[in-house]
Amino acid sequence: MENETELRVVHQEEQQHREEGEEEAQPQNPPPLRRRFVRYLYVGYFLARWSARTWEFSVALYMIHLWPNSLLLAAIYGAIESGSTAIFGPIVGQWVEGMDYVKVLRLWLLFQNLSYTIAGGAVIKLLLVSDLKSRNLAVFAILVVLTNVAGAIGVLSTLAGTILIERDWAVVMSEGHPPAVLTRMNSVIRGIDLSSKLLSPVITGLIISFVSLKASAITFAAWATITAWVEYWLFISVYSGVPAIARSNERRILRSRTKQVEGTDAPVSVSNAPGTEESSTGNPPCRTGIRKILDRVSKSSFISAWRIYFNQEVVLPGVSLALLFFTVLSFGTLMTATLQWEGIPTYIIGIGRGISATVGLAATLVYPLMQSRLSTLRTGLWSFWSQWSCLLVCVGSIWVKKDKIASYMLMAGVAASRLGLWMFDLSVIQQMQDLVSESDRCVVGGVQNSLQSALDLMAYLLGIIVSNPKDFWILTLISFSTVSIAGMLYTIHLYRIRNHIFHFEKIPLLNKCLFKLLPTRGNM
């Protein structure tokens, strides 16, 4: 009875809150977004992404330096990082959904910056003692493990922040405004991420090339320590200054309380007397124990999160986007380590990665224009296959005899493909924002990142199996095949929704050619 009364009170509070929200929503024009707080959001996100992108670029160089002529350490680090996100991603999404915003902010920034500081400190120690592997293998292994674990925790913390800002706050802040506002915010947020990807490798590459690896590790650790406080102040200012975020926080607290009360309001089962269970059910006790274990697993937060994800209308676009992570055709750990093994200077790799990010940054400008003319769904189709066409250059580099030319072809193909890749990414994210309910938004975001990391993990496992940089061409072919499968899945999704793929009648040049080729009635 107490549980029923408490549940009734919670439902009444939620209903009252909805009615108040409806009364507040009576005016046609919502309050305008204050530019100061939007800027605070962008600056705070830039600082957070700079740390993540700097570590993402630097760790490959650290690992190839610690274990030359092998991708093993780099691949192991990538596998641990991706595996942790694949396993704990859905749980992180549910954790973000179940907590109030202030707690999420504090835990996110604390764990992210503390983890990166610890990882940077471990790398500094490894670099200071250059012959540590031969002198004391146990200490060397402990420091490498510490770097891997701290990096994985930092990535999980970054995931929580990404879900909060990209999947939740951007949508909440744009509620009640025209759709172009959300499209613009998505483009700016993605532009911030790509700007960090553009500038941080260039600066890090210059530090490594003209100073030392040690200097880059020291700079990174100091940056992570200092910026944590600035980021927290900026995000708390946004939380306090945007009423829509505070109202969304109240709604999520009510949902959390409702779930807790419903969870305790379970019916009490009457158990059989000892010794009668087998005769009454006809199942042996062992079978019953297995069934209980399966029931617990099926009701776990991990399984329920995946169940929510696969029930979404946008599951195929999500899977297509995730498949693009099963690739080495990006300026990630494996390709960076391979390029350095082939003798490409570090600063050239950094500049190449910067050019790649610049091309991707252009996607944040082109996407709103295409989306306003073609729709979100069809923009995703055109952007995907443009990316696929550019990757043909990477495949062609396999048959080029000169290593340096092949390496530059590989870099050029990857860089050119970023325009289509990031436009496709924006398209899928906006489809999820539009079609996933508020109560499932963070959970779906967590599962999406988990799926992406699982496929990223498979790419690193391939890197462990094919660890010789000479065999990078095998990884290139497998990656291109996976990208092709992803394109087919998205095309199937579009056809299922629209019942056609192209509007041939809207291509004037094609119509003119067909008109000339087809015989008229008078000539028949």
Summarize the structure in words:
It comes from Arabidopsis thaliana x Arabidopsis arenosa. Residues 269-283 have a biased composition (Polar residues). Pfam families: FPN1. This protein is 81% helix and 0% strand. It is mostly helical. The N and C termini lie far apart (85 Å).
Brief digest:
The protein has 524 residues and is mainly alpha-helical. Helix content is 81%, strand content 0%. The protein has 20 helices and no strands.
What string gives the helices and strands in order?
Answer: HHHHHHHHHHHHHHHHHHHH
Largest sheet: none
Q: Mean pLDDT, rounded to whole units?
A: 79
Low-confidence stretches: 1-7, 17-28, 268-281, 520-524
* Total strand segments: 0
Overall shape: it is globular
What's the Cα radius of gyration? 26 Å
Structural class: mainly alpha
Distance between the termini: 85 Å
Summarize the amount of helix as a percent range: over 70%
Beta fraction: under 5%
For this structure, the quaternary state is: single chain
* Secondary structure tally, helices: 20
Topology of this protein?
Blueprint: H1 2-24, H2 35-66, H3 72-98, H4 101-128, H5 132-135, H6 137-174, H7 179-210, H8 213-241, H9 243-264, H10 277-281, H11 285-298, H12 301-310, H13 315-323, H14 333-341, H15 346-374, H16 376-396, H17 403-435, H18 441-465, H19 472-498, H20 508-517
Helix pairs in contact: 1-9, 2-3, 2-4, 2-6, 2-7, 2-8, 2-14, 3-6, 3-12, 3-18, 4-6, 4-8, 6-7, 6-18, 7-8, 7-15, 7-17, 12-18, 13-18, 13-19, 15-16, 15-17, 16-17, 16-19
